[in-house]
Amino acid sequence: MKVTEHIAQSKGETRFSFEILPPLKGQHIDSIFNNIDPLMEFNPPFIDVTYHREEYTYKELENGLLEKKVVKKRPGTVGICAAIQNKYNVDAIPHILCGGFTKEDTENFLIDLDFLEIDNVVALRGDAVKSEMYFKSEKNGHNYASDLVGQIGNLNKGKYLDEDLQNSSATNFCIGVAGYPEKHMEAPSMESDIHFLKKKIKNGADYIVTQMFFDNQKYFDFVKKCRKEGITVPIIPGLKPISTKKQLNLIPYRFKVDLPDDLVMAVVKAKDNKAVRQVGIEWCIAQSKELIKAKVPFVHYYSMGKSDNIQTIASEVF
């Protein structure tokens, strides 16, 4: 079932959903199931599964030269989605990126999803390879998420890259895209960011899920700006509870989001990470309750491979 259909069926009731990471290469899929199992009591209609592009590593040879190797540390997104749908009978939503994909790769990826009866995707540009400062698309790939959305939208109309195909079958993907309440890190302004978000909607996106935020007013202001600009699709808030002191520096640096002073000081005063985890849980519970009161369609949690704190939060609010 499509995300938009789940929203329609909920009749204004806020639902619970979450996102997981594929396990590191070499780990068993049970490592995923062990984190999903405790969250199933909250009846998530869907579970997002991230996609991780290749990385470059360099191995020193005996002659002193470096050999460049391409590795994927977290493969298996499509297989995990199929396994989730089979085991839990809920919709699994794979992320699909511009980075690391040619247009042909994208089309074949989507064909596989269609055959597996996976009818939701989240279309993202993706980050630059860790060893590179700026994002670079593959040759004959997409530079922008809006173009990726356009290709998925074309498949939904039965338009494939090979224009000579006869009697081609149309797909039926519900397309999610990312929104940034504090703007994308590369956007020069919030206005320009929303301009390009509108382009993603125009090209066929059906809903928006936001980057994490820790001040609900940032979300409410973002929704207001989107509505003012004519964006009418559902906007799902994404939350992540802080769990370590290290994240005080990591989250603003990595994701370019602000942390409220009250939250920062509560974490600073915590005696250890166990206390930090409790601070993060309580802050996220308060955020969730306020968002539910505002009748958001879903509260979507970024689990980052761990479910214990998400379970504690959901037990309080769902």
CATH fold title:
TIM Barrel
Class in CATH? Alpha Beta
Structural Rg: 20 Å
Strand order of the largest sheet: 1-2-5-6-7-8-9-10
| Structural class by secondary-structure content | alpha/beta
- Give the total of domains: 1
User: Low-confidence parts, pLDDT < 50 over ≥5 residues?
Assistant: none
Shape: globular
Helix content: 25-40%
Name the beta content range.
15-25%
Order of helical and strand elements: HEHEEEHEHEHEHEHEHHHEH
The second-level CATH architecture is: Alpha-Beta Barrel
Number of helices: 11
State the separation between the terminal residues, measured CA to CA. 22 Å
Overall pLDDT, averaged? 93
Biggest pleated-sheet summary: 8 strands, parallel, barrel
Oligomer: single chain
Let me know the number of strands. 10
Describe this structure in words.
Helix 5 runs parallel beside helix 6 and helix 10 packs parallel to helix 11 (308-317). The two termini are 22 Å apart. Strand 1 (15-20), helix 2 and strand 2 (46-49) form a beta-alpha-beta unit. The strands form two sheets. An eight-stranded parallel β-barrel has the order 1-2-5-6-7-8-9-10, surrounded by five helices. Strands 3-4 form a two-stranded antiparallel sheet. By secondary structure, the protein is an alpha/beta fold. It has one domain: TIM Barrel, CATH 3.20.20.220. 36% of the residues are buried. The chain has helices spanning 3-10, 30-36, 77-88, 103-115, 145-156, 190-202, 216-228, 247-255, 261-269, 273-293, 308-317, and strands spanning 15-20, 46-49, 55-60, 66-71, 91-97, 120-124, 174-179, 207-212, 235-239, 298-302. The longest helix has 21 residues, at 273-293. The radius of gyration is 20 Å and the shape is globular. The chain contains eleven helices and ten strands.
